[in-house]
Every structure is written in structure tokens, then in C-alpha cells.
Specification:
The chain has a single domain, classed as Protocatechuate 3,4-Dioxygenase, subunit A, CATH 2.60.130.10. Strand 1 (8-10) and strand 2 (17-19) form a beta hairpin. Helix content is 7%, strand content 23%. By secondary structure, the protein is mainly β. It binds fe (ii) ion.
Length: 246
């Protein structure tokens, strides 16, 4: 998106000015990107209508952490048996534009299994399902803005965008941030993936530094001996170093 929005919005009475949240120019991918074919069919054809941010948009959601159980953040213990694949720990912080931690933020993730297959009715990839892996997780950031998942390294998968098109391994993320208007839906990638330079979705992000911010760091300190590899990935809700939105 390349549209800049106003920095203030009004509640209607024009008495109370509320902050709104800007989307930095040139950081996020364009809504219509030639290399990513399906965007041609689904991007808006008319200028966006910018709605004022009222109290609901800038103060919600208020989510209780009692909605989340420990199992929600450990995708390897949601069934009777253990899933196939490389076990990984994925952890990081959610930060605002000044680098301050953002606590109490709901993070939802979804991903393929180790073979590159989603558990979804529209999935076409003829790779095996794993009866012990759904690929869905949830966590709420703690008082220091930290989150932590245990999961399985996702696989690459073909996606039919062009001849021999394969998505690099990735995990989808959704965050609500401090407000509905800060919602982020994005993807996290793994370092050293040879498919990254070939992927139109990854490369639809125009800014090189912004692309690099979508790649997690391999973290030997997070890696646990005899058990799991560790990756860290911090998410910045807005500002010059904001994490790229889809
Ligand atoms: Fe995906």
C-alpha cells in the first residue's frame, strides 16, 4: 500500500482527536504485483476509502490471556503422538515504533507440516498429511513483549503461480497489536533458504531491508541440546523499522 493517511482522526464531535496509525511508504508490498498473479484479480480498482479511527479502532481489542492454553503455543503436543519433522523453538518480541515491548498481544500462526502440506480443504499439494500436526498456534505476549512457540520446521510447497513455482518455507503470522488498526498479517521466513530469491511474494516487498526483516535469525542460544533448533524473530508494529504487512 502506498497511501498515507492523516495523523489525526476525530470522534465525530470534533472535540477529541485520536492518533491513527500510518503505513510507511515504500516498505509494504503493492496491492497489485505483476509477479504474484492472483493480486491482479483481487486488488482494489478504486482509491481506498480511509475511514476515521474512532475509539473502537484505537483502543481495542482487549483480549484475556485466559483464552490461551500452554498447548496452543506448542504445536508438537496437540495430538496423542509427536509430529514428523525437525522440531524448532521460535521466539521473539513484539515492539512498537520506539522499541518498547508490547505486552498482551495475541499472536496467531499457521503453517504447513514438514512435508509442505497445509491441513486445509483447498490444499492440492500431494504431500502426506501428518495426523499429529495441525499447523495452528496461538500465544499472547508477556509483560516484556515476548512470545515463544514450539513447532516443526515447515516445508516448501508448489503453488502454481508460474512454471515450477515453490514457496520458500514460511510461517504465517497474525497480530492484533495494541489496536485493531495495528493488525499485522505477515509471513516469517528462514535464513539461507535458496527459494527466497525466486519467490514473487517475498520479492514483492520493494525495500531490501524490509525483506530482510521478514527472515528469522538462527539462534544457537535458543537451540536446546538433543532436542530442538532455535530461531528468533522480533516483530515491529509500526515506524521506520516496521515488520512488513501483507
Ligand atoms: Fe503459506
Amino acid at each position: 500500500m502506498t497511501t498515507e493517511v492523516s495523523t489525526t482522526a476525530f470522534t465525530g464531535s470534533s472535540e477529541l482527536a485520536l492518533p491513527s496509525y500510518e503505513r510507511p511508504l515504500g516498505v509494504h508490498p503493492p496491492l497489485d504485483f505483476a509477479g504474484y498473479r492472483s493480486t491482479a484479480l483481487r486488488h482494489p480498482k478504486h482509491p481506498l476509502v480511509l475511514l476515521p479511527h474512532r475509539l473502537t479502532e484505537v483502543t481495542g481489542p482487549l483480549l484475556g490471556d485466559d483464552l490461551i492454553t500452554a498447548t496452543d503455543a506448542d504445536l508438537t503436543t496437540q495430538h496423542a503422538g509427536e509430529p514428523q519433522g525437525q522440531r524448532i523453538i521460535l521466539a521473539g518480541r513484539v515492539l512498537d515504533s520506539d522499541g518498547r515491548p508490547v505486552p498482551d498481544t495475541l499472536i496467531e500462526i499457521w503453517q504447513t507440516n514438514a512435508a509442505g502440506r497445509y491441513r486445509h480443504w483447498r490444499e492440492h499439494h500431494p504431500a502426506p498429511l501428518d495426523p499429529n500436526f495441525d499447523g495452528i498456534g496461538r500465544a499472547i505476549t508477556d509483560s516484556a513483549g515476548r512470545y515463544r512457540f514450539v513447532t516443526i520446521q515447515p516445508g516448501a510447497y508448489p503453488w502454481g503461480n508460474h512454471h515450477n513455482a515453490w514457496r520458500p518455507a514460511h510461517i504465517h503470522f497474525s497480530l492484533f497489536g495494541r489496536a485493531f488498526t495495528q493488525r499485522i498479517v505477515t509471513q516469517m521466513y528462514f535464513p539461507g533458504d535458496p527459494l527466497l530469491p525466486l519467490d514473487p511474494i517475498f520479492n514483492s516487498v520493494p525495500d531490501e531491508k524490509a525483506r530482510q526483516r521478514m527472515i528469522a535469525d538462527f539462534d544457537m542460544n535458543l537451540t536446546q541440546p538433543e532436542w530442538a533448533l532455535g530461531y528468533t524473530w522480533d516483530i515491529v508494529l509500526r515506524g521506520r523499522t516496521a515488520t512488513v504487512f501483507e
